[in-house]
Each structure stands twice: as C-alpha cells, then as structure tokens.
Amino acid sequence: MLNLILSLFLSTILAMNSHQNTQLELIINNGKSDNGLVRVLIFNDSEGFPGDYTKAFKALSTNLENKRAVFNISNLPAGKYAITAYHDEDGDGKMSKNPFGYPTDRFGFSNNPKILFSAPTFEKCLFEIKEGQSHIQVIDLR
Question: Residue 33's Cα: distance from chain center in Å?
Fold first, then answer.
C-alpha cells in the first residue's frame, strides 16, 4: 500500500514538473508605435475565437518596445492553441474600427494566415505545444 501511495505521489510530481518545462515565447512584430499595449487572447477551443475574451484560455497585455512585444508564458499545458493579437494604441481596451467595421488597430493571428474579408478560422490559426517542449510563435501585425 505504501508503494502505491509513493508511486502516485511521484507520478503527480513528475506531471507537475513537466508542465513547468512547457513554454511559449510569443513575439508580436509591426506595432504602429510604442504607445498603448499589445493585447493577446489565447484560445484552446474554437468557442469565442477570435475576439471573445470571456471564452479565451488566457488574456495577456504588455507594452511595446521598438514596435515589438514579447510574452514568455510558462507552465502552459500541452495542447492545441490559436492566438489573436492587436495593438491597442489608444489604450481603451477595445479594437478600434472604421465605420464599415474593419479594424483600424493593427491585428494578427497565430500562423499569420491570409486575411481577406473576415477573420481566419480557429483551425487556420491552430498550433500545437507538446509536453515538456518550448515553442516560439511569431505574429506579424497588419
């Protein structure tokens, strides 16, 4: 019985440590200026993608330096993710749009898919992070 408890304890510790080695470095390029913030939504499910922050797995913001922002995200569970990013230059917490509804803030998505008349699908933006690995995702705002 003691061996079983010890075995379960050790496997739990190993599982927790493997999450600690899973990292995502997210690099956002092409901000319009260094004003405001880059806002990022990380989704692990298509529900709410691309803009519903209440359905996002994680919501992050950071400043820009030289029109670039870098996020180092630790302990991210292995899985498939899709990311939305935009440069909130005026800092109002909302994506600015023109009268026709097209964003005037610079924006981008993981995998940098082609954008024609609407946001790309969740599937086009998906990438996978494997257990215990580091991953780099670069998003070029447009």
Answer: 21
| 23 within 8 A of 135, measured Cβ to Cβ | yes
- What does the chain come to in residues? 142
Between CA 5 and CA 9 the distance in angstroms is 6
Token pair in block for residue 136? 């780099």
pLDDT per residue, tens digit, the chain (142 aa), is 544 444 444 454 445 544 457 899 999 999 999 999 999 999 999 999 999 999 999 999 999 999 999 999 998 899 999 999 999 999 999 999 999 988 999 999 999 999 988 999 999 999 999 998 899 999 999 9
Domain locations in the chain? 2-140
Count CB-CB contacts under 10 A for residue 38.
26
Structural contact between residues 128 and 137, judged by C-beta atoms closer than 8 angstroms: no
DSSP assignment of 86-116 equals: EEETT-SSS--B-TTS-B-S-EEETT----S
SS3 2: helix
pTM for this model (two decimals): 0.84
